[in-house]
Automatic annotation (TrEMBL):
Its main location: membrane. It is a multi-pass membrane protein. Its EC number is 7.1.1.9. InterPro entries: CcO_II, CcO_II-like_C, Copper_CuA, Cupredoxin, Cyt_c_oxidase_su2, Cyt_c_oxidase_su2_TM_dom, Cyt_c_oxidase_su2_TM_sf. It catalyses: 4 Fe(II)-[cytochrome c] + O2 + 8 H(+)(in) = 4 Fe(III)-[cytochrome c] + 2 H2O + 4 H(+)(out). Residues 113-241 form the Cytochrome oxidase subunit II copper A binding domain. This is cytochrome-c oxidase. Signal peptide: none annotated. The gene is coxB. Residues 16-111 form the Cytochrome oxidase subunit II transmembrane region profile domain. It is found in: Membrane.
Length: 252
């Protein structure tokens, strides 16, 4: 009993630390930070409720254990206690619902004029990234399809600028896929005949792994890509070079 209580207190202390992510990767976007805070807050609430429950159990074991064969006083009900244990769960659920709805609205919010728009097309078994300006494709990265039961080719790279609002529009040509970059702490289905979209603002430079998170066929596990976050200047150069290649009749 004591060891279980000690473990619970240790876990609660670890949860309160700002550096503890409780199994989630380090977020690289504004939206990911919000999801991490919601996750941490949920664990803090869970440990708080668990602490109260364990405290009541220990209190009952220590102070209300059987001391004789005499029948203890019998009561039919205790109205204040019944109101308390009915109202408290509703309050907890309402608080969790409020913060969940607030953060969901923040993460799913889209703007009228994002700085970057990328059309992402998932297909068996790779990805295509088309960069749009005024509705026209100015750069395109096409992954090589994985041959059935063959080796995985080089991963296509989706390049985006840090500090800019990026809108991702998701398309599928065959079956349902799922766009997932674990470092974004977010994933979204890629569905045939329907355009899903979301926005994010990256805060950290680097290259991050991405993959399909929906079982989509025999080589689903090889449907990989990378998200590369660069400076705005590097992104502008990437787009300029791609425009030149398209103008010359080549591809990127």
């Amino acid at each position: 009993m004591k060891s279980a209580g000690a473990l619970g207190l240790l876990a609660l202390a670890a949860t309160g630390c700002s550096g503890s992510r409780l199994g989630l990767p380090e977020p690289i976007s504004v939206q990911g930070e919000r999801m991490l805070h919601l996750w941490q807050g949920s664990w803090i609430a869970a440990f708080a409720v668990g602490g109260v429950v364990w405290g009541l159990i220990i209190w009952a074991v220590l102070f209300h254990r059987k001391r004789s064969d005499d029948l203890p006083p019998q009561v039919r009900y205790n109205l204040p206690i019944e109101i308390l244990y009915t109202a408290v769960p509703f309050v907890i659920i309402a608080v969790l619902f409020y913060f969940t709805a607030r953060d969901e609205n923040f993460v799913e919010k889209t703007t009228d004029d994002p700085a970057v728009v990328v059309d992402v097309t998932g297909f068996q078994w790779s990805w295509q990234f088309d960069y749009k300006e005024n509705g026209k494709t100015v750069a395109s990265v096409v992954g090589q399809p994985v041959a059935p039961n063959g080796p995985a080719p080089a991963k296509p790279v989706m390049t985006i600028p840090a500090g800019k609002t990026v809108r991702v529009k998701l398309h599928a040509n065959d079956v349902i896929h799922s766009f997932w970059v674990p470092a974004l702490i977010y994933k979204k289905d890629v569905m045939p005949g329907y355009v899903n979209e979301f926005e994010f603002t990256a805060t950290k430079l680097g290259t991050y792994e991405g993959r399909c998170a929906e079982l989509c066929g025999v080589d689903h596990s090889k449907m990989l890509f990378q998200l590369k976050v660069v400076t705005p200047e590097q992104y502008d150069k990437f787009i300029a070079d791609s425009k030149q290649a398209l103008a010359a009749g080549g591809g990127k």
